[in-house]
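Below is how a single chain appears once it has passed through the pipeline. First comes the sequence as given, then the structure the pipeline wrote out for it. We keep one example in the README because the format questions we get most often are answered faster by looking than by reading.
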Amino acid sequence: MNERSAVVTGGARGIGRGIAERLVREGWSVVVTDVDGAGAATTADEIGAVAGLAHDVRDPAAHRHAAEVAAGHGRLAAWFNNAGVGDDGRLSELSEEQVRRVVEVNVLGVLWGMRAALDGFGPAGGDIVNIASLSGLGPVPGYSVYAATKAAAVSASMSVAAETPRSVRVHAVCPDGVRTAMLDAQDPEGLGAALVHSGGRILTVEEIAEVAVGMVGSDRVVRTVPVWRGALMRSVSLAPGLAARGTALFAAQGRRSLRTR
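Resulting structure:
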């Protein structure tokens, strides 16, 4: 049994799988969880994780169960809240069901995960890494609900980091657009897709996994990827009125990028 164990939610594919793979390579006992239980089990077998669990992150009891399973394979020392959903579209375009799902998965899922981790770490402490988004740092037309939930994840990360013992470190990773199934599933003609592709190169899963795992043991709370886009988003958030007027310009740039892919 390895000395340390970790839980990665939403780990069947995409960024979660990338994080789990990197942790396994570094010698962690990893529990992969996903709402797609079969997918989690398959991924766990393929990458050498110790378990793959069905896990709806809206259920607090499911988080506690994941923590218990991980503790059976080593001291729980890291928890990655990666599971998330992202229906793109303006607030006026999304159904009530879509809004509720995005909020519950992306906000409650992170909060319940952090609580389970804090309970499971024990006096030795550990690291919580929340996969947020650059959209949580400023206005993102076309992703209003998704951006609001990621802003909540960033805010919760900072607050919990300040209220926990020094042995517990809480981090929020805020990437720009990443090549995942979520990105590929968005409406290519939508405003959100155009804005995501307005910033240049789409990031890879491997890049974000490297940053996320690299946060373990560090004192940094919020990390943007790439750094320059984070600085730009924070500056835009200081003048949201100007950002609104610049939306058409950025959207046009993004649509040109989409056409040339």
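Strands lie at 4-8, 29-34, 51-54, 75-81, 126-131, 168-175, 222-225.

See the next section for the split statistics.
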